[in-house]
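Possible race condition, two jobs.
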Amino acid sequence: MIRPIIHDPLFLGQQSKPATEADRQIITDLMDTLRANLDRCVGMAANMIGEKKRIIVFCNGLMQMVMVNPQITAKSGEYETEEGCLSLAGVRKTKRYRKITVSYQDQAFHSRMGTFEGFTAQIIQHEVDHCDGILI
């Protein structure tokens, strides 16, 4: 189900709680909402649809990917960039890393580890920040 986007910075500034298998519907709703906003969005965190759970979805090339309970475990190549956000007006400067390693669970709640670079790494960092209550 496509859900409305949350714009309240007080809600978005709260830390998300770990997701469990009981949160499968949130994953489906988050994917549906991302697909409905692909013309202006490349990633979303569950708090953007009103759910304080550590779930993110994002575009990885032509496919959409789900990460449940993502944790960035390594990062390198710091740089400064500007980002926008579907939940917030305008763009802001922020620091990101060119290469990251992420520990997460997939949509079936299997443990995974992945290394990501470039724009995909930037998207993941933005969405993990959402999970941590960090707004750009």
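Job #2 (started ~2 s after job #1):
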Amino acid sequence: MPFIVEEYDETQKERLKVLPGITGLCQLSGDRKKAIHESMDYDLYYIKNASFFLDFAILIETCFFALRGI
């Protein structure tokens, strides 16, 4: 939402450099009920630590969440 992005600081704008995916760390956390712009730390962590293994762990955990109906 442009009106939210206008308020981003430089650190938060880092998030916009990465293509969005179908899931992420925030969706797997207990903070997933927060608004997107209030839970950027997960995305920034992912950007700094992106790897095949982190992607694989997120994918596996997403499957477990889906199977449990969360």
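The two ends are 26 Å apart (CA to CA).
Logs attached separately.
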